[in-house]
UniProtKB/TrEMBL annotation:
<protein>
    <recommendedName>
        <fullName>Ribbon-helix-helix protein CopG domain-containing protein</fullName>
    </recommendedName>
</protein>
<dbReference type="InterPro" id="IPR002145">
    <property type="entry name" value="CopG"/>
</dbReference>
<dbReference type="InterPro" id="IPR010985">
    <property type="entry name" value="Ribbon_hlx_hlx"/>
</dbReference>
<dbReference type="GO" id="GO:0006355">
    <property type="term" value="P:regulation of DNA-templated transcription"/>
</dbReference>
<feature type="domain" description="Ribbon-helix-helix protein CopG">
    <location>
        <begin position="34"/>
        <end position="68"/>
    </location>
</feature>
<dbReference type="Pfam" id="PF01402">
    <property type="entry name" value="RHH_1"/>
</dbReference>
<dbReference type="InterPro" id="IPR013321">
    <property type="entry name" value="Arc_rbn_hlx_hlx"/>
</dbReference>
């Protein structure tokens, strides 16, 4: 016996989802923006190890590092 949900029931289920009908937030309205980052496997391993030892997530450690560079600057020879 094949049971197929009625189309209206399926539509009602989808419309009742928590994110249904919510317009996408503009970049200005969002608290954080997801980005894509390419990183060497060796550096990623070091980041993950530091995050684990610090009790932070990978994303939290990367955010913290970026914040510190922006706030305190970075010493780059030749720049």
């Amino acid at each position: 016996m094949i049971v197929r949900p009625k189309k209206k029931a399926a539509e009602d289920f989808i419309k009742a989802a928590p994110d249904a009908g919510v317009p996408p937030a503009s970049e200005k309205d969002r608290k954080k923006i997801q980005i894509s980052l390419t990183i060497s496997p060796e550096l990623l391993k070091a980041v993950d190890e530091k995050a684990r030892k610090s009790g932070l997530s990978r994303a939290a450690l990367i955010n913290l590092a970026i914040h510190q560079v922006i706030s305190s600057g970075v010493n780059l020879p030749g720049l």
